[in-house]
Amino acid sequence: MKPAYEYDIQMPSNMDPNKKYPTIFTLHGKGSDEKDIYGLVAPLADDFIIVGIRGNLTAGAGYQYYDLKSIGNPLREHFDPAVQQLEATIHYVTENYPVDPGKRYLLGFSQGAILSLTLALTMGRELKGIVALNGYVPEFVKTEYTLQSVKDVSVFISHGEFDPVFPIRIGHETADYFNNKVSQLTFKTYPSGHGVSEENQRDLIEWLKFDASGHTRKE
User: Fold this and answer.
1) Does some domain include residue 219?
2) How far apart are CA 39 and CA 88, in angstroms?
């Protein structure tokens, strides 16, 4: 069955037909689209399958996965189905393309980071790792969702020190929440706003390369 979300997929150049590849599923921010994050992960395009998933609701000239009551307060009637449908989309892509199921990553910005963090908690070891840029975990996810162990999920969290949308304390709170739950946590802050700096991009690229190589890090 076709998934609920439109997606765009980029395959590595010079693919080996007998090989399965590490795969990055990208989740965009509010008002953007499925190709928005490709620029961030372009340096990985030769070695990873990259899948951009488009939100199914319109937001200005772009899209979103859910609407809000207010900042930090997603509409449950949108958010809950989004989590389920994104998980189904990840499984659909895995079944229909040469995706290595042991090396599936989520990379999200803002709204996409919120969903990436949530999916880490609901999918657990089905994911190899996540990159969450300027996001958080909604309180209702922590208290009402059925959460899986994320001990074996590698987590990279970053936040802009001058983010006017989600203040820096939210980044610290999110990192603190995951600190004792995962064995591989990287948390970095950058002198930026609600965006991704060049330094942030370099760090996440190196993190993904290193993690997918099978190495472990000591933070």
Assistant:
1) no
2) 25
| pLDDT for 216 | 61
- Domain of 31, CATH number, reads 3.40.50.1820
Range of the domain at 170: 7-212
Quote the CA–CA distance of 145 and 80 in Å, as a whole number.
10
What are φ and ψ of residue 64, in 5° steps? -150, 160
pLDDT at 5: 96
Query: Cα Rg for the chain, rounded, in angstroms?
Result: 16
Burial class of residue 216, CB neighbours in 10 A (0-12, 13-18, 19+): exposed
pTM for the full predicted model = 0.96
Tens-place pLDDT, residues 66-81:
999 888 889 999 999 9
Distances (CA, A) of 4 to 36, 44, 61: 19, 27, 20
- Whether residue 218 lies inside any domain: the answer is no
Burial of 113 (0-12, 13-18, 19+ CB in 10 A): buried
pLDDT recorded at residue 120: 98
pLDDT of residue 72: 81
Residues of the chain with pLDDT under 50: 219
Is 68 among the domain residues? yes
Count of structural domains, the chain? 1
* Cβ–Cβ under 8 Å, residues 137 and 170: no
**Residue 195 covered by a domain:** yes
Q: Choose among 52, 71, 73, 72: nearest CA to 63.
A: 52
DSSP 83: H
Quickly count: other Cβ atoms within 10 Å of residue 40's Cβ.
20
